[in-house]
Amino acid sequence: MQALTERVFALASPGGLFDAGVVRNLFPTASSGARKLLVNRAVHHGEVLRLRSGLYCLAPAYRKSSLHPFTVAAALHAPSHVSLETALSFHGLIPEAVFQVACVTARRSRTYATPLGTYVFRCVPCHDPRAGVRAVRLSPDAWAFVALPLRAIADLVYVRRHVTWNRDGLRFLTESLRIEEEDLRELKLEAFQEVRHTVRNRRTQAYMDGLGQELGR
């Protein structure tokens, strides 16, 4: 086992996730070049996976606990929250599996192709980035911010710039996304105003107003 792998393994960080700061703390007397060499050796031997510059995780065989994709998303691009199709799938509203982790951020849009999968971050302007978003416990030692269904819908309408309530209405959700209308009508609406008030885009506001009236908010 490489020296870096051994020390990170001893830390028992959730899922073996760590960053350049952890490497610096583990090897405080080493030069930046020496630390870079330690990382490169561990990556070369397949013991460490490089997720992006300065962010890494132990390979599966060297982890003491599982690594949830949502935990990786939070570390890749912060602040952000899991949303869009990924959140709708997480809440059991869309039937098909989602093969990438889709997130929303107040920062610029980014896409990361990592050894653990593809992570897409879409910029959605809003007044309160955490409106309609809740912290979800993924495991005993891991949490992630995940959009409630109404926030995920609002985020999705914003990024699908062709969608309007007058033209698409509920069909965007029931036909394009294949969400069951019965499931939509069973959504808890206590977060509706919270989500509606954070939206800054008029087209998205109009869609959420139409949806709220349709669902009887």
Q: Describe it for me?
A:
The protein has 11 helices and 9 strands. The chain is of the alpha+beta class and 217 residues long. It folds into 2 domains: 3-62, Winged helix-like DNA-binding domain superfamily/Winged helix DNA-binding domain (Arc Repressor Mutant, subunit A); 69-215, no CATH class. The strands form 3 sheets. Strands 4-5-7-6 form a 4-stranded mixed β-sheet, with helices on both faces. A 3-stranded antiparallel β-sheet has the order 1-3-2. Strands 8-9 form a two-stranded antiparallel ribbon. Strand 2 and strand 3 form a beta hairpin. The longest helix has 14 residues, at 202-215. It starts with a helix and ends with a helix. The relative contact order is 0.12. The model has no long low-confidence stretch (mean pLDDT 94).
Q: Helix proportion of residues, in percent?
A: 40-55%
Q: Tell me the number of helical segments per DSSP (H or I, 4 or more residues long).
A: 11
Unreliable runs = none
Main-sheet strand order equals 4-5-7-6
* % residues in beta strands: 15-25%
Overall number of strands: 9
Mean pLDDT across every amino acid position: 94
Going by helix content, strand content and strand pairing, the class is: alpha+beta
The ordered H/E elements are HEHHEEHEHEEEEEHHHHHH
Structural domains: how many:
2
* Radius of gyration from the alpha-carbon trace, in angstroms: 20 Å
Give the biggest sheet: 4 strands, mixed
Terminal CA distance reads 58 Å
Shape: elongated
Q: Topology of this protein?
A:
Blueprint: H1 3-11, E1 17-19, H2 20-26, H3 32-44, E2 48-52, E3 55-58, H4 69-76, E4 80-82, H5 84-90, E5 101-105, E6 110-114, E7 117-123, E8 133-139, E9 142-147, H6 149-159, H7 165-168, H8 171-176, H9 181-185, H10 192-198, H11 202-215
Parallel strand pairs: 5-7
Antiparallel strand pairs: 1-3, 2-3, 4-5, 6-7, 8-9
Helix pairs in contact: 5-6, 6-11
